[in-house]
Design a protein that fits this description.
Elements: H1 2-20, E1 44-47, E2 51-55, E3 64-69, E4 73-75, E5 78-81, E6 87-91, E7 94-97, E8 101-104, H2 107-117
Antiparallel strand pairs: 1-4, 1-8, 2-3, 5-6, 6-7
């Protein structure tokens, strides 16, 4: 009978000690430089080609307005399809075809993918 109470006491002590342990809370930090990072109606693009040329319009022969490179993360402003069924995305510096980028629903997903590009 004494062994029974000792076992019960040990179980009780174990439960009390394990329930008293504080769980460390994970802190999620958001970058305030990009307030639209999690906006549900904003898409983000990750450039996957080594270099890409922005175009002034949604055609391959359009004037080149600027350049970007692999790993750049850009906010998408518009989307359009040309006569050849190529999907183009509008950015601050011009248009890029979908062949040189990947679209993400938020900036944090694009950032994680960009970090994986370096590996």
């Amino acid at each position: 009978m004494k062994k029974f109470w000792v076992c019960i006491l040990l179980i009780f002590c174990t439960l009390v000690i394990s329930s008293c342990k504080k769980n460390k809370e994970e802190v999620i930090e958001f970058n305030e430089l990009h307030p639209l990072s999690l906006a549900p109606d904003v898409e983000w693009a990750l450039i996957t080609d080594p270099y890409a040329a922005y175009r002034s319009d949604i055609e391959w022969n359009a004037e080149i307005t600027s350049h970007c490179r692999r790993g750049d993360i850009l906010q998408v402003y518009a989307k359009s399809i040309d006569k050849q069924k190529t999907v183009w995305y509008k950015f601050e510096d011009g248009w890029l075809p979908e062949t040189c980028l990947t679209i993400y629903s938020n900036r944090y997903k694009a950032q994680t993918a960009a970090e994986n590009l370096k590996d």
